[in-house]
Amino acid sequence: MAASGSNTARVYVVQGRHRISVPMAIASNTIVDVADDRSLGANDVTITTGRSLTKSGKGTLSVARVRGGLLTVNGGTLAVAPDGGAAGLSIVNGLNVAGTPGARTSTLDLADNDLLVDYATAGTIERDVRELVRDGRLSGFGITSLRTEQDDMILAVADNAQLQRPSWLGQTIDATTIIGAYTFFGDANLDGMVTTDDYVAVDLNLGTGDAWVEGDFDLNGSVTTDDYVVIDLNLGKGTSTPAAWASQQSDMIGLHAAQFGEAYVTRLTHVREHGWTVTPVPEPGPFGLLVTAAAGLANRRRKPE
Q1: Could you tell me if 79 and 213 lie in one domain?
Q2: Residue 87 and residue 53 in one domain
Q3: Are residues 279 and 136 both part of a single domain?
Q4: Do 149 and 77 fall within a single domain?
Q5: DSSP track, 31-58
Q6: What is the pLDDT of residues 228-273, one digit of tens each?
Q7: Residue 175: CB atoms within 10 Å
Q8: Average pLDDT, stretch 107-119?
């Protein structure tokens, strides 16, 4: 199915549930309006650079992936089918989800898939995408991902200007790419695992960082001792031998409890009782003291033999 021309193309679904069985090629600005409690399914959607696809209406548009152009979700849900690999990777030049931070009104559901935003102009896009993920976790409106049984995974958002990856799932990327990786809470370097390597991000940015790759794993806008809790509880996940990390995990929890005291223990208990959350628990104490304390942690960590 192709939509082309200088005028805006429109697709309306007002009754029933429908499916487009061929790939969609969007060569003109296109609005897909799906009414409440209605749905439209599609395979791959390709948007010509400089053109846009807008999902409106309260219903659901389900796709295999979206590639190219500007993607806007103004109403309801745009859902990407679960895949977890290269075939489910969406790549867009721009992304909008209706509403404002903390008050989104629509949803981009990525399931277990990754997302790349190949932007042209530097600005606040990494922060904007991160806020969409935070809103999705808190309210279900924004960017959502598959919630596992342990609810220990999230779409981690990183600016490749910091990460400096040459490619992602087989796609060449550069410093003007935002990476959204479906991975474990605490995976700072986006290698799909939580290991002692990830502590370095928090160590170096405690009290100063505000991005995922700097250690802000609970998306509260700052790197605090809460973020040590995230790594401690997920340590070893994604590795080939997660059980081998049990002793190291116990050691790190004990070390951090002694190092950071009540604030750390409160957060640890909260997460164990209530599960993973991006809502911060207020943490007292001057960061200068915490940074000094963290500086001595690196040489007290080891990887399992």
Answers
A1: no
A2: yes
A3: no
A4: yes
A5: EEEE-TT-EEE-SEEEE-TT-EEEEESS
A6: 999 999 999 999 999 999 999 999 999 999 999 998 999 999 888 8
A7: 12
A8: 98
In this structure, are 287 and 159 located in the same domain? no
Q: Which residues pair with 12 in a beta bridge?
A: 33
Mind listing the pLDDT tens digit for each residue in 29-75?
999 999 999 999 999 999 999 999 999 999 999 999 999 999 999 99
300 — phi, psi (to 5°)?
-105, 10
Residue 17 Cα distances to 36, 41, 56, angstroms: 11, 8, 16
Q: What percent of the chain is modeled with pLDDT above 90?
A: 83
Give me the helix-helix angle, 287-294 and 246-260, nearest 10°.
140
According to the 3-state scheme, what is the secondary structure of 262-290?
Answer: HHHHHHHHHHHHHCCCCCCCCCCCCHHHH
Same domain? 89 vs 203: no
DSSP calls for 55-113 = EESSSEEEESEEESSEEEE-SSEEEEPP--SGGG-EEESEEEESEETTEE--EEE-TT-
Give the Cβ contact number of residue 62 at 10 Å: 18
CA–CA separation, 239 vs 191, rounded Å? 10
Please indicate, yes or no, whether residues 132 and 220 belong to a single structural domain of this protein.
Answer: no
Q: Domain range holding 52?
A: 1-184
Residues 173-212 pLDDT 10s:
999 999 999 999 999 999 999 999 999 999 999 999 999 9
Domain boundary residue, one of 158, 184, 210: 184
Q: Are residues 123 and 242 in the same domain?
A: no
Quote the number of domains for the chain.
2
Among 127, 153, 184, where does a domain finish? 184
